[in-house]
Amino acid sequence: NLKLTGKVAIVTGAASGMGKAIAELFAVEGAKVVVSDLHLENATQVVKEIKEKGGEAIAVQANVAMEDDVQRLFNETTNSYGTVDILVNNAGIMDNFVPAGELTDELWERVFAVNSTGPMRTIRKALAIFLPKSAGVIVNIASAGGLFGSRAGTAYTASKHAVVGLTKNVGFQYANKGIRCNAIAPGGVMTNISASLTAPNPFGAERAMAGMAINPRVGDAEEIAKVALFLASDESSFVNGTIITADAGWTAY
Ligand code: NAD
Fold first, then answer.
1. CA of 120: how far to CAs of 69, 98, 142, 160, in Å?
2. CB contact set of 252 (below 8 Å; sequence gap of 6+)
3. How many Cα atoms are found within 13 Å in the side-chain-facing hemisphere of 82?
4. Is ligand 1 within 6 A of the CB of residue 141?
5. Probe ligand 1: pick from 10, 18, 20, max atoms within 8 Å of CB?
6. Secretion signal: which residues (predicted)?
7. pLDDT digits (tens, 9 = 90+) for 152-168
8. For residue 201, what is the DSSP state?
9. Which atom of ligand 1 is closest in space to residue 144's alpha carbon?
10. How many distinct structural domains can be found in the chain?
11. What pLDDT does residue 209 have?
12. Which one-letter DSSP state was computed for residue 142?
């Protein structure tokens, strides 16, 4: 029994890492997947791979920080598939561990535009489709950095805390309208983001080491995709406004 048969799912940042793994797994589970990303070429490649395995998907280029792009993403989705049932806000950028004392307005605003305002924009559009049919599911990819203060730089940490607040607020507000909104807080997962981290940790090498020493292990994107599938499917029908940590126990320390 497939878990998402016939469902239309938008996944942002789906050309790489966790977004790609989520798009692929959702397609295997019977969803029609809108593989959206800043980079069309990479998104098109993901669509090709999904189709080769018998799945259904389209690629849509969209920068979640741009209102016009988000509008076009929803237009192209409804033109192709008629509706939206599932929204996965996965697109995100890191801040290279820049600490508060060295933050520029530009970096703060760039990180928030993608990580926090992006999900607000897509949720706003999704609600216009979800509310009339009293159905819809939102899955936000937050971060362990959205729950704890020490997992990244200042802008990233604050932007992911905003995603946690957004998730709880939206989940509660629409709880009696057939709409659910939850988030995943992944620990360290091997993707392009983690591979690109080169800056020294702002808390100092010793404290960074201590943080890493308590991390049981790094995860695979597929392990996050399985949690996203649970949250997107009816298996989690009574789960709403909450954050599921997926980090092998890192933040339990
Ligand atoms: P990734 O870099 O492999 O993938 C992110 C994708 O998002 C890329 O394809 C990129 O092109 C796209 N993207 C970036 N900015 C965008 C924008 N403005 N509009 C649309 N697409 C955009 O990274 P990942 O690790 O798979 O990250 C996915 C999510 O998981 C992010 O929100 C990230 O913050 C979060 N996260 C990652 C980790 C980790 O250790 N990798 C841990 C916790 C949370």
1. 14, 24, 13, 12
2. none
3. 4
4. yes
5. 18
6. none
7. 899 999 999 999 999 99
8. P
9. 43
10. 1
11. 66
12. -
Which pLDDT score is estimated for 243?
98
Amino acid 101: pLDDT: 94
State if residue 153 touches ligand 1 by the CB under 6 angstroms criterion. no
Considering the domain boundaries, does residue 80 fall inside one?
Answer: yes
For residue 194, the ligand 1 atom closest to its alpha carbon is 41
State in Å: Cα 96 to ligand 1 middle.
Answer: 13
Structure tokens at 166: 């957004």
Distance CA 110, CA 103 (A): 11
User: Using N-to-C axis directions, what is the helix angle for 17-28 and 40-52, rounded to 10°?
Assistant: 30
Identify the CA nearest to 154 among candidates 194, 105, 189: 105
When the pLDDT of each residue in the chain is averaged and rounded to a whole number, the result is 95
Residue 37 sits in a domain whose CATH number is 3.40.50.720
Range of the domain at 72: 8-244
63-73 pLDDT, tens digit each? 999 999 999 99
The residue with greater pLDDT, 112 or 205, is: 112
**pLDDT of 198-235, one tens digit each?**
677 777 777 766 777 788 889 999 999 999 999 999 99
Edge to edge, the sheet with strand 32-37 lists 56-61, 32-37, 8-11, 86-89, 136-141, 179-186, 243-246
What token pair was written down for 12? 């942002």
Give the separation between CA 228 and CA 244, rounded to whole angstroms: 10
Within a domain: 136: yes
Query: How far, in whole angstroms, is CA 64 from its chain's centroid?
Result: 11
Q: Is residue 105 part of a domain?
A: yes
